[in-house]
Write a sequence for this structure.
């Protein structure tokens, strides 16, 4: 069985999962982290998934493909920077399913400029989607989970939280903000039986990075810097997200999990140089 098909039957029996930024979730197409996570969650017994995004057509198609496969899935238009949208999506989820057990904050945008080239508008936009979106998500997600005795939240950061570069000034700072916010949230919600963790992916083939891995030079530059010698796949990020959501991670909160093929483990010079 291919690793992306590996499942633990019944692991998520009866559970409800909400994922932001997860419109790219149609099997057979290039999937995002949300899509890979949602499909495996459903195959492992999940009662329902709510996938949300600002890309409505793509999201509707993805949810329909899950329903066609016999699963309970819906797409909701949801801009993570809007508190009104958060109130609507969490209260609709509770009305429909009675509880919310898991939240994965995935929505994100990128910037590729140096500090000098970054405008204040770009800086604010990146912070708005990544940090404000996560803050609102944890606030409203935890409020909903409180009503059914607890839950688990995963925030999608990046290895850029640990390892910066000359480009993506706002991106790297926002990702470091996510991991630190995650620690505070973990402490605050521990007594409510809500665990909060972050995952830090490296270079993974998804819609987010298509423009890089489709460019031979840009792609090879990165592959050469990965100790495991290849890009990651969305199902490899989904596996970590689902582990952290599940009861297997019952004693893990406030942690950050690197999934980067070893990129940030240390300096990795080519042999002989
Ligand atoms: N793919 C990688 O190599 C990689 C590496 C590290 C971190 N990440 C992070 O993982 C997350 C998921 O990326 P992915 O690889 O699944 O790609 P993706 O492009 O499928 O997911 C990002 C989604 O966020 C949505 N989005 C953007 N602004 C939004 C908003 N205001 N409200 C709601 N949704 C919004 C986009 O429409 C998109 O569907 C991103 O936050 C990204 O920064 C990705």
């Amino acid at each position: 069985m291919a690793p992306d098909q590996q499942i633990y039957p019944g692991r998520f029996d009866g559970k409800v999962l909400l994922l932001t930024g997860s419109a790219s979730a149609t099997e057979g197409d290039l999937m995002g982290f949300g899509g890979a996570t949602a499909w495996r969650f459903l195959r492992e017994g999940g009662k329902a998934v709510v996938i949300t995004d600002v890309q409505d057509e793509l999201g509707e198609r993805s949810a329909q493909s899950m329903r066609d496969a016999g699963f309970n899935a819906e797409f909701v238009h949801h801009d993570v920077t809007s508190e009104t949208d958060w109130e609507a999506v969490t209260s609709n989820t509770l009305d429909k399913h009675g509880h919310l057990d898991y939240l994965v904050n995935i929505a994100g945008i990128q910037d590729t400029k140096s500090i000098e080239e970054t405008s204040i508008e770009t800086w604010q936009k990146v912070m708005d989607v990544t940090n404000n979106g996560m803050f609102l998500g944890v606030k409203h997600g935890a409020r909903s989970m409180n009503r059914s005795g607890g839950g688990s939240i995963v925030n999608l950061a990046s290895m850029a939280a640990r390892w910066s570069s000359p480009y993506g000034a706002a991106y790297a700072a926002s990702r470091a903000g996510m991991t630190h916010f995650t620690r505070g949230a973990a402490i605050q919600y521990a007594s409510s039986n809500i665990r909060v963790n972050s995952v830090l992916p490296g270079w993974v083939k998804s819609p987010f990075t298509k423009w890089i891995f489709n460019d031979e030079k840009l792609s090879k530059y990165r592959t050469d810097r990965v100790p495991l010698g290849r890009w990651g796949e969305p199902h490899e990020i989904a596996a970590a997200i689902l582990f952290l959501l599940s009861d297997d991670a019952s004693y893990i909160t406030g942690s950050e999990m690197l999934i980067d093929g070893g990129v940030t483990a240390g300096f990795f010079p080519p042999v002989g140089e």
Observations:
- The pocket of nicotinamide-adenine-dinucleotide is lined by residues 20-21, 23-24, 32-34, 53-55, 78-81, 106-109, 129, 156, 158, 201, 203-204, 206-209 (CB under 6 Å).
- The chain is about 40% helix and 15% strand.
